[in-house]
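FIELD: query
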Amino acid sequence: MILVLLPFWTSVLVRVAAWIVLLQSEGLVNSGLMALGITDHPLQLAFNRVGVYIAMVHILLPFVILPTYSVMKSIPPSYVRAAISLGDHPFAAFWKIYFPQTRAGVAAGALLVFIMSIGYYITPLLGSPQDQMVSYYVAFYTNVTINWGMAAALGSLLLVATLALYAVYNRPGRFR
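FIELD: result
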């Protein structure tokens, strides 16, 4: 749990800057890959979509783990033990008994990550100009081109997508 919470002690901007340092051509990741003999030349990991994905997974993973963990911790282990004692295979007991009870936590984590990532502005700085997200374009149309109509349309698109996903999540009995 400490390793999951540790990234919250630094800002997102510092973590993105650290990923830029780690993923650049002479960075620690490329040096390690070449030292292990996995590749003979540095890979282009920074300033493209791969770098954005790596940084976003690192930054957003705790927001999936925490709700899922809280739900998993509340499930009594006696349920799976009872299924196994009644003759079910351990994997089948996990899949039929334990997993269905964790869906609410996984869905909550997925919704939380979606809502957070839809407005990401800093992490895509690790990518190229072609890898920007909608929030960048909202800021671009608001501050640079002063096209408030386009910025409002893009912002409305983000809002509608978030509300639609929340409506799907909030349906009664959906994840029970």
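FIELD: remark
DSSP finds eight helices and no strands in the chain.
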